[in-house]
Amino acid sequence: MKITTKAQQQAVLKRLDKFSRFTDSSIGIPFTKFQIGAEAVIGLVPVVGDMAGLLLSGYVLVEAQRAGASKDVKLLMLRNMGIDFVGGLLPVVGDAFDAIYKANTRNTRLLRNYLEKQLAVEPPPPPFPWKTLIGLSVLLAVITAGLILLL
After folding, report:
1. C-alpha to C-alpha distance for 141 and 45, rounded to whole angstroms
2. What pLDDT is recorded for position 86?
3. Euclidean distance between CA atoms 34 and 106, whole angstroms
4. Is 35 exposed, middle or buried (0-12, 13-18, 19+ CB in 10 A)?
5. Cα angle at 72 between 84 and 12, to 5 degrees?
6. Half-sphere exposure at residue 129, Cβ-oriented, CA atoms within 13 angstroms
7. Which of 93, 81, 77 is nearest to 56 (CA)?
8. Residue 32 region, left (φ>0) first, then alpha (ψ -120 to 50), else beta?
9. PANTHER family from the xrefs (predicted)?
């Protein structure tokens, strides 16, 4: 399924915005402006939490595939997922990295930019109707010649 309408684009992005907010910034840290998400909390469980976070991040990639995102966009998403996963594996520092990097938000932004560019591209103008122009010119010449012969 390739996204072809603004309504389809908005539906996909609305789902991904909710998902990204849940996984990356749904929990406010008291007395700060900083927010973490469910993925950072899950990532506190060594290795298994990071694997679960990687699986969760796969949802954005699946939506990008369904939306018809380009190979380049999907590769950038995979890169973000890999950075988030490897960064999260680091002892102690990895948990903070998970909370800060926010791969799902980055990937949602990548897809949003891609979709907006795709829908903003105007279709090429139709080719000039040369055959019609020539046909009408010949018809007009025949009618004119016929009128001149009748007069």
Report:
1. 85
2. 92
3. 17
4. middle
5. 75
6. 5
7. 81
8. beta
9. MEMBRANE PROTEINS, PH DOMAIN PROTEIN
At residue 123, what is the residue type? P
Non-local (6+) Cβ contacts of 128 within 8 A are none
Structure tokens at 24: 């990356």
Place of tokens 């990895």: 94
Domain residue ranges of the chain, discontinuous segments joined by +: 6-150
Higher-pLDDT residue of 105 and 45 is 105
**What does the pLDDT look like over 48-107, one tens digit per residue?**
888 898 999 999 999 999 888 999 999 999 999 999 999 988 877 888 888 899 999 999
Record the tokens describing residue 86, joined without a space. 């490897």
